[in-house]
Specification:
The structure holds 2 protein chains of 2 kinds. By secondary structure, chain A is of the alpha/beta class. Chain A has helices spanning about 50-55, 75-80, 100-110, 115-125, 145-155, 175-190, 200-205, 225-230, 235-245, and strands at about 5-15, 20-35, 35-40, 65-70, 70, 85-90, 160-165, 190-195, 210-215, 215-220. In chain A, the strands form 2 sheets. In chain A, strands 6-7-8-3-9-10 form a 6-stranded mixed β-sheet, sandwiched between helices. In chain A, strand 1 (about 5-15) and strand 2 (about 20-35) form a beta hairpin. The two termini of chain A are about 30 Å apart. Chain B is mainly α. Chain B is built from 15 helices and 4 strands. The two termini of chain B are about 15 Å apart. The model of chain B is unreliable at about 395-400 (pLDDT under 50). Classes of the chains: A alpha/beta, B mainly alpha.
Chain lengths: ~250, ~425
């Protein structure tokens, strides 16, 4: 399988007015393949969101390189954004647009042809069961409804790579279940999904491979079986702890 | 450019769905001036009525002249009405005594003291800091002037027409449009700057700090279009909101002035708006709106909450208004030097165009337009540079780091 996401020596330094230079990432090497769910596991502040934001071209790396669907994020960020679907708790919806208008707006800026876009919007509205509130303003929707619209927005252009930053944060049981089903369905469609989480059960259930990140460094990566073998522990929380303690 | 227009269209659509936008950009400009003018006129009428009903007391010293007493107490019908209550004093009242009567506590106090002397003529003592005293002065002067005219008429044999050759007849060569243009040239340029800034104020914050606060800044950054196009779309939307607010404000002001001032009847101001001046000034005004929008967006992008945005742009608003007010004063003309000064150039150019002097200062107007294009470009470049700073994309920064941020490297394009 080809690598859909690849980073080499990815480093990110922020300049904080109070703390000076803060190294958020210290040389991350990551590889996620087509048709694979890759879970980036780590505590708060480990560097998960920074990694994902660099891949989504929201932030620029300080050093190292990153490629999404074969395109370098620094060389051609526009093309990366065209090949990527990104969803996080902070990618909110425009409160004064309706779900249909949101999808049309994003589709238009993705350069999708008008007729094709109209058909695609209706397809997504039906697929994600948005019909009942498709013409209500997003600001008045429930968090579950917003989540469905956000997912539809992220996959509108059918990207080969999907990056999800803690996708189940703030969702209730049904919302979480829908999200897990959605991630699974994207894998079945042959897409690469990279998602960050600090919920061990989610990673254990969904991921083909897991990367454990802590203090800006990737401490270990592989299938759950490989990580168990590497650390000699059975459960993921023990695996995580062992990797952190060894570091 | 297509992407910028798509972003601008979306921002305008969402803007018009916001109640605050509708109130501040449309409802307020349309309602404000008619209401303010109506209240002013009503207040003037009430004051006029109250003045007529107010009785003033005047102490007349040395008033053996019964004509004066009659003229003061019972004026002819063509003079403004109003009762004057007279008190008499024998001749020889000194200035100190007159002052003491004016300053005395009620009931001895009078509103004015008129001392008549055949040697020195009439002396009127009053207190300009008291409204009743001021009213008493006005009535006494009007009525004495009428009495003097009457006495002169009698002196020449009783025919007032013999005095007509001494009367001055005024002939105003300015048309109503010229007069209106002159009056508007002092009001509209300042109004324009004020409204352009105020109309852009709220949208500039909403599309920058507002996006961060609502959690949609990251969503916008994911749009598969160059950040410059997205920023340009936002600036165009902010400029459009500024233009809408400005046009509605100007219309509200002109229509209210035209209809309500005309309703006062006795005013000399016959409003005939110089509409032809507006298309001539439009390119300069549009460039100013674009520059203003770019500056406000750049400054607002330094903040991360609506509240921070409001306090930071409040200072910027003053920086726009101060030069506008200074150069709008009578006597300040558009010179080649002033044609290069931001803000002042727009006010003076608009003022000159309104006064119909555009053709005579074409060179200065070309300088204004050229430098405005440069300033708009610089403002857009600075806005883009700031808006692409990583430190500002999702969070905020302090204004103190403004220049450092303008120099530093940025996020992906």
């Amino acid at each position: 399988m080809n690598a859909a996401i690849r980073t080499r020596g990815l480093r990110k330094v922020f300049r904080d007015p109070e703390r000076g230079e803060v190294e958020a990432l210290s040389g991350i090497d990551l590889e996620c393949r087509e048709g694979e769910i890759y879970g980036l596991l780590g505590p708060n502040g480990a560097g998960k969101t920074t990694t994902l934001r660099i891949l989504a071209t929201i932030l620029a790396p300080t050093a190292g390189s990153a490629e999404v669907a074969g395109v370098d994020v620094a060389a051609d960020p526009l093309e990366v954004r065209r090949r990527l679907g990104f969803l996080s708790a902070s990618t909110g919806l425009y409160a004064r647009l309706t779900p249909r208008e949101t999808l049309r707006y994003f589709g238009g800026l993705h350069g999708i042809d008008r007729d094709e876009l109209a058909a695609r919007v209706e397809e997504l509205v039906a697929t994600f069961e948005i019909t009942a509130f498709a013409d209500q303003r997003c600001g008045g929707l429930s968090s579950g409804q917003k989540q469905r619209v956000s997912i539809a927005r992220a996959v509108l252009h059918d990207p080969p790579v999907l990056i999800l930053d803690e996708p189940t944060t703030g969702l209730d049981i049904l919302g979480t279940s829908d999200m897990i089903e959605f991630i699974d369905a994207r894998r079945s469609a042959g897409r690469c999904i990279l998602f960050s989480t600090h919920i061990l059960s989610e990673a254990e259930r969904l991921c083909d491979r897991i990367g454990v990140i802590h203090r800006g460094r990737l401490l270990g990566a592989g299938t759950l079986a490989e990580l168990r073998e590497q650390t000699g522990r059975d459960y993921l929380d023990q695996v995580f702890r062992a990797l952190v303690e060894d570091a | 450019m297509r992407a910028a227009l798509a972003v601008a269209r979306k921002e305008l659509l969402t803007g018009f769905r916001d109640r605050q936008f509708l109130i501040y950009t449309i409802a307020l400009p349309l309602a404000l001036y008619p209401v303010v003018f109506w209240v002013m006129i009503q207040a003037m009428l009430v004051m006029e009525g109250r003045e007529e009903r107010t009785s003033v007391s005047v102490l007349v010293a040395g008033a053996e002249l019964s004509d004066v007493r009659v003229a003061l107490a019972a004026p002819p019908k063509d003079l403004p009405p109003g009762k004057v209550e007279l008190f008499s004093e024998p001749p020889g009242l000194t200035a100190e005594e007159a002052t003491a009567r004016l300053r005395a506590e009620a009931p001895e106090a009078v509103d004015a003291v008129l001392v008549l002397s055949s040697a020195e003529g009439a002396t009127l003592y009053y207190d300009a800091s008291r409204s009743r005293s001021e009213l008493a002065r006005k009535r006494v002067e009007e009525r004495l002037a009428w009495l003097v005219d009457d006495l002169r008429t009698d002196a020449i044999g009783g025919d007032a027409r013999d005095l007509s050759s001494f009367a001055t007849r005024r002939v105003d060569l300015a048309s109503d449009e010229d007069t209106s243009a002159y009056v508007l040239s002092f009001v509209l340029p300042i109004m324009f700057v004020l409204m352009a800034v105020m109309g852009s104020f709220f949208p500039a914050i909403d599309l920058t700090a507002g996006e961060k606060e609502r959690g949609t800044a990251e969503t916008t950054l994911l749009l598969p279009q160059p950040r410059a196009s997205i920023l340009l779309g936002k600036v165009v939307a902010v400029a459009a909101f500024g233009a809408i607010a400005t046009v509605l404000n100007a219309l509200g002001l002109i229509v209210a002035a035209e209809h309500l001032l005309a309703g006062l009847g006795e005013t000399d101001l016959a409003f005939d708006v110089p509409w032809s001046a507006f298309p001539a000034a439009a390119p300069l005004l549009l460039l100013f709106l674009l520059t203003t929008a770019a500056i406000l967006v750049a400054v607002a992008s330094l903040t991360k909450t609506f509240k921070q945005g409001q306090s930071m742009l409040g200072g910027v608003q003053m920086m726009f208004l101060a030069p506008a007010i200074l150069v709008a004063l009578p006597g300040v003309e558009l010179t080649p030097g002033l044609a290069l000064v931001p803000i002042a150039q727009t006010v003076l150019a608009f003022k000159a165009i309104l006064q119909g002097e555009g053709a005579t200062i074409l060179g200065e107007l070309v300088l204004v337009a050229g430098s405005q294009v440069v300033y708009a470009g610089l403002a857009l470049a600075a806005s883009l540079r700031l808006a692409s700073r990583e430190a500002l994309l999702l969070g905020g920064e302090s204004a103190g780091r403004l220049f450092q941020l303008l120099r530093a490297g940025g996020a992906p394009k």
